[in-house]
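Customer escalation, tier 2.

The customer says the design service returned an amino acid string that "doesn't look like it belongs to this structure." They asked us to rerun it and document both sides in this ticket. The original C-alpha cells are below, unchanged.
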C-alpha cells in the first residue's frame, strides 16, 4: 500500500468518525453547555474536524503557492463564518424549517469546501493532458496522482448529497413552491441526485474508455438513479396503516429506495467504467528517454547538459532522483499506481 492509498483510507475512516461524533457530541454539548444550541455546537465541532482532517492528511501533497494558500484560507473562513453566524439564508417562522436549512447549509458547505479545496490543490493535475508533472504535483518528494485526486474528490460527495437535500427541502418548504408534498419531496431529492450524476461524470470522464455500449449503460443507470428519487409516488410509500408483515416490509423497502439508487449508481458505474484489459494500450513498456531527460518542474529538455540543473526554472537534483521520478511517471501513466 503506497502513501496516497493509506491517506485516502484514513480520510475515509475519519469521515465515518465525524458522523459517529454527532450523537454523543449533541449530548455532551447539552450537558456541559446548556445555553448553547446543540445543533449549532455539533456543526461547529464537525466543521472543525472536517477541515483539520483534510488539511492535516494532504498538506504534504499540496504545492502551497501564495494563490493556493490564500484561496484555501478564504474558503475555510467562509465555511466557519457560516457555522458561527448560524443564520439560514431564508428566514422562516417555522423553527423546524430553519433548523433544516441551517443543517443543510452547514453540511453542504462542508462538502463544497472539500470539493473546492481539492480542485484548488490538484485541479492542474486533473485537467492536464501531458504526462509531465505540474507544479501542483511537485511538493518535495511527494506528488499527487490523478487517480488519488479523483478518489479524494469522490469522497467530498458524502456530505454534499445530504446537505443539498436538506437545503432543498427547507427552501421549498419556506417558499411553498408546490402545494403537493409529494412533488416537493421528489424535487428536493432530485436536485442532489442530478448534481451527483453531473459531478460524477465530470470527475471520471477522462478515465473511462467510452464506446456505445458504455454510454448506453451509463445513461440507463443515471435514469434509474434519478427515478429512485420519486419513491414518494409509489402507492405503498409511507403507509402508516400497514398491518401485515408484507405491507410493513414494502413500506420500509420504499423508504430506502433512494439509498438503493445511490448504491446502484456508484457501484454500477464502477463496474461499467472499468476498462477492459484488452482495450488498454500502453504507450511504452519501459520508461521513455523523453521522461528521463526532461525537467520534472517545467518539462524543459535537459538533454546534453553536464549537470542536472534546469536552466529554465533553476530546478536541481541528482541523476538517481531524475531516474526515480521518471519511473514514477511511467508507472502512473501505465495505471500501476494510485
Amino acid at each position: 500500500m503506497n502513501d496516497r492509498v493509506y491517506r485516502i483510507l484514513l480520510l475515509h475512516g475519519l469521515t465515518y468518525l465525524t458522523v459517529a461524533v454527532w450523537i454523543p457530541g449533541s449530548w455532551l454539548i447539552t450537558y456541559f453547555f446548556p445555553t448553547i444550541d446543540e445543533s449549532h455546537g455539533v456543526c461547529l465541532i464537525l466543521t472543525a474536524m472536517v477541515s483539520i482532517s483534510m488539511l492535516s492528511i494532504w498538506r504534504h501533497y499540496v504545492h502551497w503557492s501564495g494563490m493556493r494558500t490564500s484561496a484555501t484560507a478564504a474558503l475555510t473562513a467562509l465555511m466557519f463564518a457560516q457555522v458561527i453566524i448560524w443564520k439560514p439564508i431564508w428566514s422562516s417562522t417555522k423553527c423546524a424549517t430553519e433548523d433544516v436549512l441551517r443543517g443543510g447549509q452547514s453540511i453542504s458547505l462542508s462538502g463544497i469546501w472539500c470539493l473546492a479545496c481539492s480542485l484548488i490543490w490538484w485541479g492542474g493535475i486533473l485537467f492536464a493532458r501531458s504526462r509531465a508533472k505540474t507544479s501542483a504535483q511537485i511538493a518535495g518528494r511527494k506528488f499527487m496522482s490523478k487517480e488519488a485526486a479523483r478518489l479524494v474528490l469522490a469522497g467530498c460527495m458524502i456530505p454534499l448529497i445530504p446537505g443539498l437535500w436538506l437545503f432543498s427541502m427547507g427552501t421549498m418548504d419556506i417558499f411553498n413552491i408546490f402545494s403537493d408534498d409529494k412533488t416537493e419531496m421528489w424535487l428536493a431529492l432530485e436536485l442532489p441526485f442530478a448534481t451527483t450524476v453531473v459531478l460524477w461524470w465530470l470527475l471520471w470522464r477522462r478515465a473511462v474508455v467510452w464506446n456505445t455500449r458504455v454510454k448506453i449503460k451509463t445513461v440507463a443507470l443515471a435514469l434509474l438513479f434519478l427515478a429512485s428519487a420519486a419513491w414518494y409516488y409509489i402507492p405503498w410509500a409511507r403507509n402508516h396503516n400497514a398491518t401485515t408483515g408484507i405491507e410493513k416490509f414494502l413500506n420500509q423497502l420504499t423508504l430506502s429506495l433512494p439509498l438503493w439508487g445511490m448504491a446502484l449508481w456508484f457501484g454500477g458505474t464502477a463496474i461499467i467504467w472499468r476498462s477492459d484489459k484488452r482495450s488498454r494500450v500502453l504507450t511504452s513498456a519501459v520508461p521513455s528517454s523523453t521522461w528521463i531527460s526532461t525537467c520534472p518542474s517545467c518539462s524543459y529538455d535537459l538533454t546534453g547538459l553536464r549537470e542536472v540543473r534546469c536552466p529554465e526554472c533553476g530546478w536541481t537534483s541528482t541523476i538517481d532522483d531524475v531516474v526515480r521520478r521518471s519511473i514514477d511517471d511511467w508507472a502512473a501513466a501505465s495505471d500501476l499506481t494510485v
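Tier 2 assessment: The sequence is consistent with the input. Residues 134-141, 277-291 have pLDDT under 50 and may be disordered. DSSP finds 13 helices and no strands in the chain. Sent an explanation to the customer and offered a walkthrough call.
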